[in-house]
């Protein structure tokens, strides 16, 4: 049966702050650039340079103040602007052509304020031609000035651009962290930058040198690689590009290593580009839509009934539920992404229409659950949702049906009876009264109560999950849909008792979609980095109790199923191993009595080490961080012993100094280990000040001397005033003086004298009178 496309009104813009100004800009300026925040509550409108004031407007749906910015004539307006999906609140970054970047944020009150202003090109002389903000990064393409070598010819001048990157992360509630600039590409042509949820597309422009205007680049941020593709040739090649490791490429050198891509071809003549979760869409002047995927392959999606007329005609592309939506002028065409067949064609009442992406998964309002995954269409008439009516074969369960189905599974898992329990039996049996009472409340037979208010959010999430499953069953096989389903399933499982089937299902989701599963874990545990490079969490103790429990010492998990804590450690070790020690340390702070082990003597750091593999096959850096962060004396001493074997003296001393006065015995043991090394060789002499700081204050000088006597190597021959050539110098009193003076400065002990020569260390400096001589 043919599906029917729907255009549902979500808002007439009256619930947006500054609604009048918003309608004015949408209706009056066809060249206005429109962007939407990840939660769908904020709209950004940026007018082109030279337009009348205001050049920038941010409208907010619901509570909140709008932001209007204007620049006087003669002063340039921003080149581009983006929303930043920060957890503390909405943020906005503005980038100018001269390299100036400003970050704005909504403060505690409803007003906006400037958080940071910086120069992307500190050296000056560069001109930014394109910018994008993918996943906590700011990427821009800038044109460098010609150096002292003089004017360059046309071919060389065409490669005078470079693509740069800086990380952009929130720091607290009122500041940002902007990382150091890193050049991704040197000597490249001008690129336009388009960002999707996973990839960054670098596409040629009208001014790109014709010899390379058929080539585009796809940078996969999560995989740390760049794909060089020529869609017209059907060729692509992958190269590593990881800014964290300092990777950078010279564009000309990159192409010389791929001669097949330089075959003479016509430049890509594209009317409209659009980034989508499936890849990069491009519309040519014949009305044909092509899709370039993240692996570099390309295919034709379909052909529109109307082709764009010149560069002046407006066009917008987007995808939803396996459908391509194209707005060309005042016409909306819907094509099947698989077959290219025209599904529906609608004539709109205006030609000034903008397509907006749906809100990010998990950030929809309650009113938008029924339109989840659909594209949104914005004009001066309002905000609409483009979607399909649900097929007749797919019926969404009611809230009353969901109660009996969930209760049926709950009772069946706890029943000893062999017969299968059915929802119909629960409806009519007088044995199970709880689901009948809850169903009556939801159906309205009983007046609403506190129970309904408590369950509304959980039932809304569960109903949204069922809606998403129904859409996927109806033929929506988009990767974004499965990712969203995995995120919701993990968030639901982490709120349940993780035993048996639930634990097995959680393991399956983490194996199939680890990135989506870890993203849901981040939101459930409310994990955020603090200013000291550590993790913090605001999740309630009940959630942590479920995560940290469920293991038994000495027993392997059945059928390879890992407990929740081990599962999270394994996933984190694969995705972001540098955060594993901080996560384990945070878990140790959150754990209550008996949470982290099924039997005594199984601390969390040992559970994390077991995930890394057998001893000797683990990554040394991670193992050291886990041992040092455990706070257990045996583990810390083991880590210090490994550092001593590697002769990392400063780090070993810092490990002892970091313990603080709360662990005097452990500090004393580390000091004795380091003192033994100090007595046996001279490679620790440069770190003597740190060794003095590590020395316990209650240790007397005579005790240090006795310890040194124990650790000193045996003398082979008679002592000599100077060491033999090639032989390491022995320990001298001069090297010990600083250490002995520090312990002696603590004051003379009140107890009995332990040595006949101990008084020398506290002597004021005046020698005693000489005894009379016998004549």
TrEMBL record:
Keywords: Cytoplasm, Endoplasmic reticulum, Endosome, Membrane, Microsome. Pfam families: HPS6, HPS6_C. Component of the biogenesis of lysosome-related organelles complex-2 (or BLOC2) composed of HPS3, HPS5 and HPS6. Interacts with HPS5 and HPS3. Interacts with biogenesis of lysosome-related organelles complex-1 (BLOC1). Interacts with AP-3 complex. It is found in: Microsome membrane. InterPro entries: BLOC-2_complex_Hps6_subunit, HPS6_C, HPS6_N. The keyword Membrane applies. This is Hermansky-Pudlak syndrome 6 protein homolog. GO terms for cellular component: BLOC-2 complex; early endosome membrane; endoplasmic reticulum. Residues 401-773 form the BLOC-2 complex member HPS6 C-terminal domain. Residues 1-385 form the BLOC-2 complex member HPS6 N-terminal domain. The keyword Transmembrane helix does not apply. GO terms for biological process: blood coagulation; protein localization to membrane. May regulate the synthesis and function of lysosomes and of highly specialized organelles, such as melanosomes and platelet dense granules. Its main location: membrane. It comes from Daubentonia madagascariensis (Aye-aye).
């Amino acid at each position: 049966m043919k599906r029917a496309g729907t255009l549902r009104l979500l808002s007439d813009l009256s619930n947006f702050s500054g609604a009048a100004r918003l309608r004015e800009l949408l209706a009056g300026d066809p060249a206005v650039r429109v962007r939407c925040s990840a939660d769908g509550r904020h709209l950004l409108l940026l007018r082109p340079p030279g337009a009348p004031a205001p050049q920038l407007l941010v409208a907010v749906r619901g509570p909140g103040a709008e932001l209007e910015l204007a620049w006087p004539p003669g002063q340039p307006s921003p080149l581009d602007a983006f929303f930043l999906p920060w957890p503390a609140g909405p943020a906005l970054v503005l980038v100018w052509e001269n390299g100036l970047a400003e970050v704005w944020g909504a403060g505690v009150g409803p007003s906006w304020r400037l958080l940071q202003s910086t120069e992307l090109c500190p050296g000056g002389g560069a001109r930014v031609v394109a910018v994008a903000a993918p996943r906590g990064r700011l990427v821009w393409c800038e044109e460098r000035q010609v150096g002292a070598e003089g004017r360059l010819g046309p071919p060389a001048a065409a490669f005078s651009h470079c693509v740069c990157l800086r990380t952009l992360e929130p720091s607290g509630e009122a500041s940002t962290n902007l990382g150091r600039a890193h050049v991704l590409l040197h000597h490249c042509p001008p690129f336009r930058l388009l960002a999707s949820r996973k990839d960054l597309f670098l596409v040629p422009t009208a001014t790109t040198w014709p010899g390379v205007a058929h080539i585009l680049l796809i940078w996969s941020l999560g995989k740390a690689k760049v794909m060089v593709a020529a869609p017209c040739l059907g060729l692509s090649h992958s190269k590593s590009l990881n800014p964290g490791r300092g990777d950078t490429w010279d564009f000309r050198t990159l192409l010389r290593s791929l001669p097949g891509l330089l075959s003479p071809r016509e430049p890509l003549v594209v009317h409209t580009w659009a980034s989508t979760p499936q890849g990069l869409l491009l519309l040519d002047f014949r009305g044909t839509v092509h899709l370039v995927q993240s692996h570099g392959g390309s295919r034709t999606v379909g052909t529109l009934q109307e082709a764009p007329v010149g560069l002046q005609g407006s066009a917008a592309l987007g995808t939803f539920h396996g459908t391509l939506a194209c707005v060309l002028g005042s016409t909306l065409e819907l094509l099947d992404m698989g077959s290219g067949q025209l599904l529906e064609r609608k004539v709109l009442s205006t030609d000034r229409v903008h397509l907006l992406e749906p809100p990010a998964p998990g950030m929809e309002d309650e009113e938008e659950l029924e339109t989840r995954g659909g594209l949104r269409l914005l004009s001066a008439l309002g905000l609409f949702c483009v979607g399909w009516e649900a097929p007749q074969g797919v019926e969404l369960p009611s809230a009353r049906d969901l109660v009996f189905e969930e209760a049926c599974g709950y009772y069946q898992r706890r029943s000893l009876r062999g017969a299968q329990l059915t929802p119909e039996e629960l409806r009519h049996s007088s044995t199970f009264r709880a689901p009948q009472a809850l169903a009556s409340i939801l159906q309205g037979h009983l007046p609403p109560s506190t129970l309904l208010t408590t369950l509304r959010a959980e039932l809304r999430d569960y109903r949204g999950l069922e809606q998403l499953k129904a859409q996927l069953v109806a033929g929506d096989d988009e990767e974004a849909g499965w990712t969203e389903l995995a995120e919701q399933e993990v968030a639901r499982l982490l709120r349940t008792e993780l035993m048996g089937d639930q634990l097995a299902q959680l393991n399956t989701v983490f194996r199939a979609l680890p990135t989506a599963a870890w993203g849901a874990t981040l939101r459930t545990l409310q994990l955020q980095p603090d200013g000291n490079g550590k993790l913090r969490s605001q999740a309630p103790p009940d959630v942590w109790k479920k995560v940290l429990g469920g293991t038994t010492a000495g027993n392997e998990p059945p059928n390879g199923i890992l407990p929740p804590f081990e599962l999270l450690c394994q996933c984190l070790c694969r995705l972001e191993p540098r955060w594993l020690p901080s996560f384990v340390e945070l878990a140790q702070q959150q754990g209550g009595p008996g949470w982290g082990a099924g039997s005594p003597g199984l601390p969390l750091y040992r559970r994390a080490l077991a995930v890394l593999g057998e001893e000797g096959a683990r990554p040394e850096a991670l193992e050291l961080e886990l041992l040092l962060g455990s706070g257990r004396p045996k583990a810390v001493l083991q880590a210090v012993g490994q550092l001593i074997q590697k002769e990392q003296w400063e780090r070993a001393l810092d490990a002892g100094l970091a313990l603080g006065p709360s662990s005097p015995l452990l500090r004393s043991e580390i000091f004795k280990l380091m003192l033994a090394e100090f007595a046996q060789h001279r490679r620790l002499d440069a770190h003597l000040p740190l060794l003095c700081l590590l020395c316990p204050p209650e240790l007397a000088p005579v005790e240090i001397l006795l310890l040194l006597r124990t650790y000193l190597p045996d003398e082979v021959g008679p002592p000599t005033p100077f060491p033999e050539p090639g032989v390491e110098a022995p320990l001298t009193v001069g090297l010990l003086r600083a250490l002995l003076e520090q312990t002696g400065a603590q004051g003379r002990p009140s107890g009995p004298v332990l040595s006949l020569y101990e008084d020398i260390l506290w002597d004021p400096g005046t020698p005693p009178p000489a005894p009379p001589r016998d004549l």
